[in-house]
Amino acid sequence: MRQWTHEPAHQLAKAVRNGEVTARQVAEQHLSLIAARNDGLRAFTDVTANRALAKADAIDSAYAQRLKLPPLAGVPFAVKNLFDVAGLVTRAGAKINRDYAPASADATLVVRMEAAGAVLLGALNMGEYAYDFTGRNAHDGHARNPHDPERMTGGSSGGSGGAAAAGLAAITLGSDTNGSIRVPASLCGLFGLKPSYGGLSRAGTFPFIASLDHVGPLARSVQDLALAYDAMRGADPLDPVCTNGTAEPVTPSLEGDLAGLRIKRAGGYFTRMGDTQAFAAVDTIAHALGAEASIELPEAHRARAAAFIITMIEGSSLHRDRIRERPQDFDPEVRDRLIAGAMLPGDWYVKAQKFRRWYQAGVMKLFQETDLILAPATPTSAPLVDQKTFVLDGQTLPVRPNLGIFTQPISFIGLPVVTVPVWPAQGMPIGVQIIAAPGKEGLALRAAHWLECRGIVQAKVAP
Predict the structure, then answer these.
(1) Structure confidence at residue 463 (pLDDT)
(2) Mapping DSSP to helix (H, G, I), strand (E, B) and coil, where does residue 435 land?
(3) Which residues are known to be catalytic?
(4) In degrees to the nearest 10, what's the CA dihedral of 14, 191, 154, 176?
(5) Mean pLDDT to the nearest integer, 101-108
(6) Using CA atoms, how far apart are residues 216 and 230, in angstroms rounded to an integer?
(7) What is the SS3 assignment for 351-379?
(8) Residue-level pLDDT at 146
């Protein structure tokens, strides 16, 4: 039988709708692959096989009755284990959370994906409490990159990146506070969408930094990102920041041309502290899109510093009681950063938020003269799993905080970003950010789709 685990989501859904394959056959193939590969990749922490097969059978029954099938019919997906899944404990990558009761209901986005016909396979590994850029987890094992298991997936959505790149799921959902969708997309050679802040509902997800948290999909094609986004978009009264109920669907505009779009490269800060591969990837995308001019985001280095301050102070506030009561049950690296955040002066937080408003206003002025901005997604391709440091611009720096060096100044003000994977002649992939103004996900997706259709970017299933 044809190996359906290698197909992108839109092709799988088309095949199910056309009767080329049953949803059960697709689900069984993916469950078999998870059973065969997950021990080595540490992508899934929970597999919902019975639920998946029951959903697949319902889709096949609807097909037999000649009912119209929804756009993601039979598409296997999985979610970072900070999404509530009824009957599963919402781990959020933490040992402490395992003592909590299982979720009584699904997160909003799980409900919406299933309403669109997608089949939930389970929950995915992640960095503890999402405070991570590497994909390492001291409790569930470190997620490993399917393209080279000696290397990182990136994090904190490490299982989301590994599962999609290995063909264990066609679409995965992750969260992105400072870069946790874009970093795994870059290191695992995937397409990733971090929507505008408030663009998708976070209801039913375990929080990290409420003023910075985003959720979104990773996939092996731009069309899959668009289909998932359209299935999940819409206002949700359960998430007070998710108010964009009038957003237009993005899938119909994917095929539009790029004529008239003003596309520029991010200069200054985004041309330093990366290796030659990171900047060569931006060159590739910029040349293809005719983006030879550059534009500088004002004080981007201070934006990153302010994002760190907000993250440390809000994160330590959220977890203060857990640290007091069960400090020994944290990953020591996570615990120590949370303790450090608790000791920062409160006026630093106030100043960081004031700077955030100033910085956002300055960046929004840039979008009066450009539509899309290109920047590296990560400073390097995937480091080794146990690698602690790397050299950037002649400086030896810790890997864990600095994989997000190019993502933090963007998520800090809630801009939508599509990450596209560039493959060198040899070696591991690396991503480029296509950044748009708030609410303009469709423009970034259209540019990414144009690049994909011309073979300039692609996502490969790891063998």
Answers:
(1) 86
(2) strand
(3) 80, 156, 180
(4) -100
(5) 98
(6) 11
(7) HHHHHHHHHHHHHHHHCCCCCEEEEECCC
(8) 98
Distance CA 385, CA 388 (A): 9
Strand 372-376 versus strand 430-436 pairing type: antiparallel
- pLDDT value of residue 247: 72
Note every long-range contact of 103-107, with CB atoms under 8 Å and residues 24 or more positions apart, other chains counting. Answer: 103/204, 105/204, 106/204, 107/79, 107/83, 107/201, 107/203, 107/204, 107/205
CB 127, CB 156: distance < 8 Å = yes
Determine how β-strand 263-266 pairs with β-strand 372-376.
parallel
pTM of structure: 0.97
DSSP assignments along 84-99, one per residue: --TTS---TT-SGGGG
Q: What pLDDT score does 244 carry?
A: 67
Give tens-digit pLDDT for 2-18. Answer: 889 999 999 999 999 99
- What is the spatial distance between Cα 184 and Cα 118, in angstroms, rounded to a whole number? 22
CB 181 within 8 A of CB 175: yes
Question: Which pLDDT score, from 0 to 100, does residue 121 have?
Answer: 98
Q: What is the pLDDT of residue 246?
A: 61
Q: Helix, strand, coil shares of the chain as percentages rounded to 5?
A: 40, 15, 45
Structure tokens belonging to residue 164: 């999609």
* Residue 156: alpha-carbon gap to chain centroid: 9
What is the maximum alpha-carbon separation in the chain? Answer: 65
Q: For residue 405, what pLDDT is reported?
A: 97
Which residue has tokens 């065969």?
A: 36
Q: What are phi and psi of 151, to 5 degrees?
A: -115, 160
